[in-house]
Amino acid sequence: MTKKHPMDTDLDQRIWLTVCAIPAGKLSTYGDVAERAGLPGAARRVGAALRKLPPDSAVPWYRVVNASGKSSLPTGRNGTDRQRRLLADEGVLLGSGGVSVLKRYRW
Predict the structure, then answer these.
(1) What does pTM read for this prediction?
(2) In sequence order, which residues have a C-beta less than 8 Å from that of residue 85 and are 6 or more positions away?
(3) Direct distance between the N- and C-terminal alpha carbons of the chain, in angstroms, rounded to an integer
(4) Listed residue (34, 101, 44) closest to 72, CA to CA
(5) Which pLDDT belongs to residue 95?
(6) Which pLDDT value is given to residue 1?
(7) Are 45 and 12 a contacting pair, CB within 8 Å?
(8) What is the pLDDT of residue 75?
(9) CA distance 39 to 56
(10) Which is nearest to 107 in space by CA: 48, 10, 6, 35?
């Protein structure tokens, strides 16, 4: 078993706190979150941290989309469909995503 480096946990915490700061009804890209967390260019690291969240986490992971304004999750109950539902509850209509979605809802 590989032991986690304490820095990994610190980075995850920083990313999660940044995602928690995204206001309801707004979106950020993985790159936006990385930048705000002081990790410019680390969009993939943001994705890795979000994948580590427990299923019952209060971190609003669904407010994070890719640079194209689309979901990066697989279609289905625990992926894009769930993300779209959660966003719609906040008034964000993801639709097929894209630049217009980011222009309207980007934080």
Answers:
(1) 0.88
(2) none
(3) 39
(4) 44
(5) 78
(6) 47
(7) no
(8) 77
(9) 26
(10) 35
Task: Please give the full DSSP string across 17-45, using - where no structure is assigned.
Answer: HHHHTSPTT-BEEHHHHHHHTT-TT-HHH
What pLDDT is recorded for position 52? 94
- The enclosing H or E element of 3 equals none
Return the residue matching tokens 């979106």: 27
Give average pLDDT by consecutive 10-residue segment, the chain, 107 residues.
61 97 98 97 97 93 95 80 93 84 94
Question: What angle do the packed helices 43-51 and 6-20 form, to 10 degrees?
Answer: 90
Angle at Cα 16 formed by Cα 28 and Cα 5, nearest 5°? 130
Task: Could you list the beta-strand ranges (E) of the chain.
Answer: 28-29, 64-65
Strand partners, 29: 65
State the pLDDT at residue 7: 57
